[in-house]
Every structure is written in structure tokens, then in C-alpha cells.
Specification:
70% of the residues lie in helices and 0% in strands. By secondary structure, it is mostly helical. It is globular.
């Protein structure tokens, strides 16, 4: 048991460090340092799991899907024999290459292995604590009114991400976790009040950042968390009514959101902004790359190299011949364009598997608030990832929360116990 606790502490410390670690004065202040921490973390966790004799039998379905995903990326990488460094490390300033995604898969496995049952709440607490730190940092940046020297010069709320879009996405995810954590009855009252205060602060900063993915993550994650919470907390008569209202609101919101994306409906002026219109160009380019290379994509993180070949004349007319982009700004579409179906299909299966384990966790009635928080925060990440790219400080929580949901859905202690470091 002592060895298991030590393994959990190491995993959580590396998880948090991936988000908060930056190197001021370094050429790439945010992305490359986070990749370094993530790769070192993956190597250490593999060593510890290997010494323990392998993964838990209960997590084998997830491990097979993760192995299929990484193998798909490796096959796609082998098809591109000219850019080995880019395949491994990704393009400069993004670093979403094979090493990054393989390391994220290892983080998923480590958490699904060692945080089963009630221990899954430790991942939730780690996210809440990191969210509180990032909220304080974002508040200081907002009050100072000047972005850090590693940031873009249009919004001071950057956190440790160097970009208000990524900071907003993380704060939206963390706000869901913090607000639900404040409702846990077995926590001391002062901690619940602190979690609520930081949750409201994170939510406020998410809105103030004026970034689409953060607001979307907060809204979707909040609705999912409240809906999941309603399954076991409210009285049965009110439960049915509230559940129907929440599902109706979610359905109407989904339809209205899709209509707004097509520049239709009452919310079109809000969602169909110039920034979102630019994303349509990027998504169309990703689909063009997929049609040209459906099975293995154009090469891992090779979106930038192919973008000018597939961009339409309307984009050139609007932005000029120098207009370029290094990612599709949608994780599924970016994986589809650069890795093809051999990468996207396993990725989607992983999402479906996590969702199915989350539903099973809800039906079990075990830890209803923890289940609501994990599902809400994970869904918030998935929603944000559809409109953004995988910045490693944010992405690591999406994969960690997925592993925590899988772990929580297997409450019985089976298999091996990870050894001490």
C-alpha cells in the first residue's frame, strides 16, 4: 500500500508540473518545457509500471485502444521518412508530435492503473489545486493589464500557457472541477468554501478572456456535471423533471450552437465571429488533406507544410498569399489530416470507451459527486478540443481525467501494485 501511495504522489506531481512548468528567458517559454516534463514523466511511469509486472487486468481494454492509437501514429510516422524530428517533436511552438501523444497515453494508463475506486478523486483534487494556482496567476495578469513577455500582446490572461485561448480552456475545465468539489460533504468546510471561491474566479476569468473554447468548455462541462449530479442526489420526483429540463436545454443549445456555426439563428452573431470564421478555413483545409491522404494522413504534425497546397482562393483573397497555419485548431480534425484514419479511429474509440465507463460509474451510484466532477471536467476538455489544438498543459488533463474515469469505474483492487520509485 505504501508503494502504491508513492506511485500516486509521483504521478500527480508530474501531472501538475506538466501544466505549471515554464522556462522564462528560454526561446520557447511554454511548449518545449512542458513537452520535456511530459516525456520524462512518461519514461519514469513506464519504468515503475514495468517493475510492477504490468498493467491491471481491469484496464486492458483501455490499454489496447491506447496501444492501437500510438501504433497508428507510429505507422503514419513511418510513412513520412523525410521529417523524423518533426514527427517526434512536432512543429515549433506546438510540439504535438509522436512523443507527446505517446506520453499522454502513458499518463492515461498510469492513472487508470493506480487510481481505481475512491482514489480517482485524487486526480480531481490535483486539477482543483492546479486550477486555483492558474486562477490566481490569471487574476494577477488581468489586474496588471500587461501580458508576460512570452505571451501574445492582445490579452493579459495567459496563466502558464502563453496564450489566452489555452488559459481560458484550462480555467473552464478547472472551474467545473472546483465548483463540484466544493459540494463534497466529507471535505472540511474551509476547503469547500475555498474551492467554491476559486471555481467562481476561474469561471469569471474564463469569460473575461473572451476565448471561445474556454466559454464552450465551461458551458458544456457545467451542464454535463449538473446532469450527472442529478442522477443520484435529487429526489426521484424532482430528478425526472430536472433531468428532462437539462436534456431539453442541452438539445436546444446543441441545435442552436450548430446553427450559429453555420451563421444562422439567434446566436450567430456571438459564435460566428471573425476568429471562428478563420477556423472554418482551417477545418476545410484539414478535410482536403484527409481526402488526399485518407489512411495515413499527410504526416504527423505536418499540417503547416500542406496548408498552402490546399487553402482556397477565398482565404488568399482575405489574408494574402502569406497566410498560413500550423494546426487545424481542432484536435479530431488535426489528427485526421495529419495521421489519417489509422490515428483518428482509435482516438474516437478511446473517447467512446471513457464515456461508456463514465455512464457505468454513474449507474453504480458510487461517488456521485466525484463522478459528476470527473465527467463534467472531461467533457469540458473534449468540447474545447473540438475548437482548439492540444496544448500539452491542457491536454494532459484531458487524458488524465479519462484515465481517472476508467479507474473510478473499476472499484475492486485487482492486479499488481506499482512499486516505489
Amino acid at each position: 500500500m505504501t508503494r502504491l501511495r508513492e506511485f500516486r504522489r509521483i504521478t500527480l506531481a508530474l501531472l501538475v508540473l506538466t501544466t505549471v512548468f515554464i522556462m522564462p528567458g528560454f526561446l520557447d517559454v511554454t511548449n518545449l518545457p512542458k513537452l520535456l516534463v511530459l516525456v520524462v514523466a512518461a519514461a519514469l511511469l513506464i519504468a515503475l509500471l514495468g517493475r510492477g509486472g504490468g498493467a491491471l487486468p481491469a484496464t486492458r481494454p483501455a490499454n489496447w485502444l491506447l496501444a492501437l492509437f500510438v501504433a497508428g501514429m507510429a505507422v503514419s510516422a513511418l510513412m513520412d521518412g523525410q521529417h523524423r524530428y518533426r514527427v517526434l517533436y512536432g512543429v515549433w511552438g506546438r510540439n504535438d508530435g509522436l512523443l507527446a501523444y505517446a506520453s499522454l497515453a502513458v499518463m492515461f494508463t498510469a492513472i487508470a492503473t493506480a487510481f481505481r475506486g475512491r482514489a480517482a478523486r485524487l486526480v480531481l483534487f490535483a486539477l482543483a489545486g492546479t486550477g486555483a494556482v492558474e486562477a490566481l496567476l490569471g487574476l494577477g495578469q488581468h489586474l496588471a493589464g500587461t501580458p508576460g513577455y512570452w505571451a501574445k500582446p492582445y490579452n493579459p490572461i495567459m496563466g502558464s500557457f502563453g496564450n489566452p485561448d489555452f488559459a481560458s480552456a484550462f480555467l473552464g475545465i478547472a472551474a467545473v472541477a472546483l465548483c463540484v468539489t466544493s459540494m463534497l460533504p466529507d471535505l472540511p468546510r474551509r476547503l469547500r468554501l475555498a474551492a467554491l471561491a476559486f471555481g467562481l474566479l476561474a469561471a469569471s476569468l474564463t469569460v473575461l478572456s473572451q476565448a471561445l473554447q474556454g466559454t464552450l468548455a465551461l458551458a458544456v462541462g457545467g451542464v454535463v456535471a449538473v446532469t450527472a449530479w442529478s442522477f443520484h442526489v435529487l429526489a426521484p420526483t424532482w430528478l425526472r423533471r430536472l433531468r428532462m429540463l437539462l436534456l431539453a436545454a442541452l438539445s436546444v443549445g446543441t441545435v442552436a450552437g450548430l446553427a450559429a456555426l453555420a451563421d444562422r439563428g439567434p446566436f450567430a452573431s456571438i459564435l460566428h465571429s471573425a476568429n471562428l470564421a478563420d477556423r472554418f478555413y482551417l477545418w476545410r483545409a484539414a478535410l482536403a488533406m484527409f481526402r488526399a491522404h485518407p489512411w495515413f494522413g499527410v504526416g504527423i504534425d505536418a499540417y503547416a507544410e500542406q496548408f498552402r497546397l490546399v487553402r482556397g482562393p477565398d482565404l488568399i483573397d482575405g489574408g494574402g498569399v502569406g497566410t498560413t497555419a500550423d494546426a487545424a485548431h481542432s484536435v479530431p480534425l488535426n489528427l485526421l489530416a495529419t495521421g489519417g484514419l489509422v490515428v483518428l479511429l482509435p482516438y474516437l474509440l478511446i473517447l467512446v470507451f471513457v464515456a461508456s465507463r463514465g455512464l457505468r460509474l454513474l449507474r453504480s451510484g458510487d461517488q456521485p459527486l466525484v463522478a459528476a466532477a470527473l465527467l463534467g471536467a472531461w467533457t469540458a476538455y473534449v468540447a474545447a478540443s473540438c475548437f482548439s489544438l492540444d496544448q500539452l498543459g491542457v491536454a494532459v488533463w484531458g487524458w488524465a481525467l479519462g484515465g481517472a474515469i476508467v479507474a473510478a469505474s473499476y472499484p475492486q483492487p485487482v492486479g499488481v501494485v506499482p512499486p516505489a520509485a
